[in-house]
Amino acid sequence: MSLSTLFTLERGDDLPVAATIPFGRFRTEVAGLAATLTGCESAALVCRDSYAFAVGLFALLQVGAEVVLPPNGQPGTLAGLAGSFERLIDDGVVAGAPPLDAALAPIDPEAKIAFFTSGSTGQPQRVVRTLRMLEREVATFEAQWGAALGRVPVLATVSHQHLYGLSFKILWPLFAGRPFDPVTHEVWESLLAVLPAGAVVISSPAHLGRLAGIAPLAEAARPAAIFSAGAPLSATAAAEALAILGRLPTEIFGSTETGAVATRRQASGDEDWSFLPGHRFVSQAEGRLCLHSPYSGDAVETADRVEPRPNGFRFLGRADRVVKIEGKRVGLAEVEAALVGLPWVEAAAVVALPRLAAAVVLTAEGRAQLAALGGFRFGRLLRQELAPTLDPAACPKQWRFVEALPSAAMGKRRDGDVAALFAVSA
């Protein structure tokens, strides 16, 4: 099976696509919407319902239109992308197209899907992937994990507007014949209320870090697998997922530019990453990961700093998060790791303003120390504890003690959001 021939190869009309919606209905609704899109060259696709999104996606691909995927449907986001597309396809447009029982042609594997990703800077960047690349990617997923999963349903807490949600929640299930849940669950209570035993959960550090307080699932109710991507999952969150959901998350390392390139499961905490099949080192210029991608067939250079391991690599942080402080190079990821290594710190985010500033989430012990010492003296204590391992230039000068670190979609953190914490008085 391939995504480009999804409607031309034999597939039973009764096979569920989304919840109980059968493939036959999916096919006629794609054909119906495609009939209204003849001549369209590009369209932004923004749907809350994942089934409506899938109908819109394949209808646009069917007519050869470039699919533009904004990260969300907020008016400001769409206004900022004005000029990047001709039409807007949303839930209402999809619902308004009557179904049509008509033959559908194979889709051009070179059909384009454009994503807009902001990374750590907050500035939108257009990234184009072809359907062929996405086909190869989901085929890799199926070869890696499919046999152990069978045709179990797929539920998600992440948006299909991003590559990770699109590929893991919609394209991989369609490729393999697994039904997906049309709902994107924003809270665990919603997902767990409808979670079938043995299902697949597609999640992120932003959600897996909020499991505290949920009662552990009975063994019979546990999912078959949990996937996480968007940022490295903390060892604490991985252990909590095991304790509450009964499964260690399978983490995915990648980006919109590269797709999924490596994986790990944190059985003991902070394990190395192992390449997915077909990926390998090409070079390591200035410590950055440059790899061969089987999805594109090309070498792809990244801004990820890594240390090679026999079967993969150890992630050392982003190259674009190395700054000059007092004339010295400081890796912000290393400072964050040093802070988290202290008994008082649960999580930390460091930015250059231009002085080094740290936003810190405290442990119970850390909150007690803060209450006893006050912010100024506690910040000085943190600097003293960092001094034996960090250069003085790498020890933060400004502090914010917060309940949670700001994060964008799927747990990604943007430096601008952290810097905003220091734009107001403490």
Q: Helices, strands, pairings?
A:
Layout: E1 16-18, E2 21-22, H1 23-35, E3 42-45, H2 50-62, E4 66-69, H3 75-80, E5 87-89, H4 91-96, E6 112-117, E7 125-130, H5 131-149, E8 154-156, H6 163-176, E9 180-184, H7 188-194, E10 200-203, H8 205-208, E11 225-228, H9 235-245, E12 250-255, E13 259-264, E14 273-275, E15 280-283, E16 288-292, E17 299-309, E18 312-318, E19 322-325, E20 328-331, H10 332-340, E21 345-352, E22 356-362, H11 364-373, H12 375-386, E23 398-401, H13 415-420
Parallel strand pairs: 3-4, 3-5, 4-6, 8-9, 8-10, 10-11, 11-12, 22-23
Antiparallel strand pairs: 1-2, 6-7, 12-13, 13-14, 14-18, 15-16, 16-17, 17-18, 19-20, 21-22
Unreliable residue runs: none
Mean pLDDT: 91
**Major sheet summary line:** 11 strands, mixed
Tally of helical segments: 13
**Physical arrangement of strands within the biggest beta sheet:** 9-8-10-11-12-13-14-18-17-16-15
Helix content: 25-40%
Shape assignment = globular
Rounded to the nearest angstrom, the distance between the terminal CA atoms is: 57 Å
| Proportion in β-strands | 25-35%
Decide which structural class fits the backbone: alpha/beta
CATH architecture label name of the domain at 1-129: 3-Layer(aba) Sandwich
Round the Cα radius of gyration to an integer and report it: 23 Å
CATH topological fold name of the domain at 1-129? Rossmann fold
Number of strands: 23
CATH class placement of the domain at 1-129:
Alpha Beta
